């Protein structure tokens, strides 16, 4: 994360069946395509990803184009027979998803704001799981 | 080394080292101007040189310098002259006996190199100046005229820049050296009349001047009062992939033809001029596309319709894209539409792509108008029409169906992924319309709920896009305008006419954003006008009113 809001995407593989992508900075019309590309790569290079967790803790701003790319990510994840989770959503992002009625679509019926692990879901991620670049 | 020695000499010629030092030509001259000795090589450079003869006779151009050098105490300086087409530098060395040895150096090659360098520098500075002048304008006509002016100022006695033919006519800018500026005319020309012109306009290699017989030049080529044409060069102006036109350089009879170097310079200039003209033309094309789209896509001017006040305001983002993603429309009631349908929406994305998407949505909505009685159904149909596998771009919008019921207005509002409208009551209360729904165009299935309310005279329904609430600014420069502030501004607008509400909201949000860049801001107000009861119907029950 930085003051300029430049987008940074950090992919990692905390578990064999789970891919994680940390989004930091601003996600807008100038760079949102990078997100779909990064997800495509993550899903492509690791076969058998069952869960994709987007860590939105560092996401400072998301415009409508950013939301469109999140919706596209959901399509890609579904096409790969995986599940999408949006972790650590800030209030602004939460609001955007609520106003546009996309919370359920993007996150399934489950409430991903809970950090409690549940049965049949991937457990909490180790704190410093970041490795590898964008 | 052989030395031509003077037979009779005063003072006695010496043979000390400076006079004998090898290399360059040298001649030693006595204070009285007699050549004491001269080397053979000096004789080669100055064939009439004889030792023992007066300098004024054998090397007249050096005599004045020698006399001057002898008459002064200080060290003499060098002189130079051109002898039989060779440039010669003469550098004096004074000896103890007052005689001076003039070292003669043939500097012809150095001189010509220096002259070439000077020419090259002049050429480079002209091309740099031309580039700077040409880059300064993105106006096609201006670019053509600047090119003609520059060419006439340095390359020829007159210059014509001819743009490629459009609809049978060419733009021709002509400039004459010494006159102030080029003039452009649109004329029908037969490009075959001037050899090489048709080819140059198609981007073929230039035709050297000697190939064109000036007698063949058509009459229109020479500017008024130019006189007889002596030589002509036609050079293509290469553009970005397509020819940008042709440059024709003219010289008067008697000025001599164009040299090879001048033609090269002309070609290099033509490259720059062509690129500049081509860039200007591309910009003009783009601007005209944008203007056309703008005319088609800009929100309409709203007015009162069926006794309801509609007002809209749109403030596009100050970013480079002039066409934004916000839109609004008011469609008069048609059969099945369930009243007048007002729509305000926000398309995901920016620029041309967003503009085209907006156009698509507006046409689709127009076609779906007869189904506007049922908002959720209309939105479902619109969603089906817009969804595509290629991308997940979407639109968020509010539908407002408006019907007049006596003095009141019946309002049905449905949001699709859009911030809910605000209802400004007559007493200053501001309510949020309880409607919500899914954005349109990205999800396979959508849902929405409709909110119905009534507006009493003076009450307003305010529809807005998030460009208003998300405008960043304020005293600290980084705060969002936000919904609370919008509600406060709305409350102050109670009882105002629709136009005034729109003006007020836009003004406050714009002031908040200040100089910060902001997203598109669109606002629409639907207001029930204040009415006067007709005296004839006792002024109570529902019935006759005037707007």
TrEMBL record, chain A:
Ranges of Basic and acidic residues composition bias in the record: 110-121
InterPro entries associated with the record: MlaB-like_STAS (IPR058548), STAS_dom (IPR002645), STAS_dom_sf (IPR036513)
Region ranges (Disordered): 110-134
Domain STAS residue range list: 21-97
Domain of life: Bacteria
PROSITE patterns: STAS
Protein name: Anti-sigma-factor antagonist
TrEMBL record, chain B:
Highest rank taxon of the organism: Bacteria
GO molecular function: phosphatase activity
Domain PPM-type phosphatase: 305-528
Keyword Lipid metabolism in record: no
Keyword Hydrolase attributed: yes
Cross-referenced Pfam families: SpoIIE
Segments for region (Disordered): 1-23
Keywords: Hydrolase
Family matches, as Gene3D superfamilies: 3.30.450.40, PPM-type phosphatase domain (3.60.40.10)
PANTHER family listed in its UniProt record: STAGE II SPORULATION PROTEIN E (PTHR43156:SF2), STAGE II SPORULATION PROTEIN E-RELATED (PTHR43156)
Name of this chain's protein: Stage II sporulation protein E (SpoIIE)
Organism per entry: Pseudonocardia ammonioxydans
């Amino acid at each position: 994360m930085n003051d300029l809001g430049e987008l940074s995407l950090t992919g990692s593989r905390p578990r064999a069946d789970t891919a994680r992508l940390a989004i930091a900075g601003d996600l807008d019309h100038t760079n949102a395509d990078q997100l779909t590309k990064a997800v495509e790569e993550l899903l492509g290079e690791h076969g058998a990803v069952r869960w994709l967790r987007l860590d939105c803790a560092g996401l400072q701003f998301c415009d409508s184009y950013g939301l469109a790319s999140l919706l596209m990510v959901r399509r890609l994840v579904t096409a790969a027979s995986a599940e999408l989770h949006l972790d650590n959503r800030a209030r602004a992002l939460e609001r955007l998803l609520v106003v546009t009625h996309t919370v359920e679509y993007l996150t399934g019926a489950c409430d991903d704001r809970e950090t409690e692990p549940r049965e049949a879901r991937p457990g909490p991620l180790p704190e410093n799981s970041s490795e590898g670049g964008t | 080394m052989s030395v031509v020695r003077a037979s009779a000499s005063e003072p006695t010629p010496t043979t000390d080292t400076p006079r004998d030092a090898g290399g360059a030509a040298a001649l030693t001259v006595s204070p009285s101007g007699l050549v004491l000795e001269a080397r053979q090589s000096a004789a080669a450079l100055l064939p009439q040189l004889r030792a023992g003869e007066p300098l004024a006779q054998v090397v007249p151009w050096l005599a004045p310098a020698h006399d001057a050098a002898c008459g002064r105490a200080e060290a003499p300086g060098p002189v130079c002259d051109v002898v039989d087409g060779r440039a010669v530098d003469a550098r004096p060395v004074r000896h103890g006996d007052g005689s001076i040895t003039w070292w003669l150096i043939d500097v012809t090659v150095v001189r010509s190199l220096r002259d070439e360098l000077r020419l090259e520098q002049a050429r480079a500075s002209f091309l740099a100046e031309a580039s700077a002048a040409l880059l300064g304008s993105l106006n096609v006509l201006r670019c053509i005229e600047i090119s003609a002016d520059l060419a006439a100022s340095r390359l020829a006695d007159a210059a014509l820049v001819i743009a490629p033919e459009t609809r049978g006519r060419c733009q021709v800018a002509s400039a004459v050296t010494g006159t102030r500026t080029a003039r452009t005319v649109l004329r029908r020309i037969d490009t075959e009349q001037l050899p090489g012109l048709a080819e140059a306009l198609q981007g073929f290699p230039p035709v050297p001047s000697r190939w064109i017989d000036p007698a063949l030049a058509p009459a229109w080529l020479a500017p008024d009062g130019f006189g007889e044409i002596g030589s002509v060069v036609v050079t293509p102006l290469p553009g970005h992939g397509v020819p940008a036109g042709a440059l024709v350089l003219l010289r008067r009879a008697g000025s001599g033809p164009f040299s090879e170097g001048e033609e090269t310079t002309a070609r290099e200039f033509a490259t720059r001029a062509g690129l500049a003209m081509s860039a200007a033309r591309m910009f003009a094309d783009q601007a005209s596309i944008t203007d056309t789209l703008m005319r088609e896509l800009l929100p309409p001017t709203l007015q009162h319709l069926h006794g309801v006040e509609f007002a809209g305001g749109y403030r596009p983002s100050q970013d480079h894209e002039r066409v934004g993603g916000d839109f609004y429309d008011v469609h008069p009631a048609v059969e099945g539409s369930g009243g007048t349908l007002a729509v305000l929406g926000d398309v995901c994305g920016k620029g041309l792509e967003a503009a085209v998407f907006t156009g698509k949505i507006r046409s689709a909505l127009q076609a779906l108008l007869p189904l506007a009685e049922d908002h959720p159904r209309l939105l479902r149909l619109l969603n089906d029409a817009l969804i595509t596998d290629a991308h997940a771009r979407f639109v968020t919008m509010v539908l407002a169906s408006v019907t007049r019921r006596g003095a009141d207005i019946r309002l049905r509002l449905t949001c699709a992924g859009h911030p809910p409208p605000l209802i400004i009551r007559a007493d200053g209360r501001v309510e949020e319309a309880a409607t919500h729904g899914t954005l349109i165009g990205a999800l396979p299935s959508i849902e929405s709920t409709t909110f119905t309310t009534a507006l009493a005279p003076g009450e307003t329904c305010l529809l807005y896009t998030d460009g208003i609430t998300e405008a960043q600014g304020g005293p600290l420069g980084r705060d969002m305008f936000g919904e609370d502030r919008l509600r406060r501004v709305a409350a102050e607008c109670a009882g105002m006419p629709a136009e005034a509400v729109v003006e007020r909201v836009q003004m406050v949000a714009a002031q908040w954003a200040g100089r910060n860049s902001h997203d598109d801001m669109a606002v629409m107000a639907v207001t029930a006008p204040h009415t006067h009861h007709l005296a004839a119907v006792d002024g109570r029950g529902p019935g006759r009113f005037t707007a």
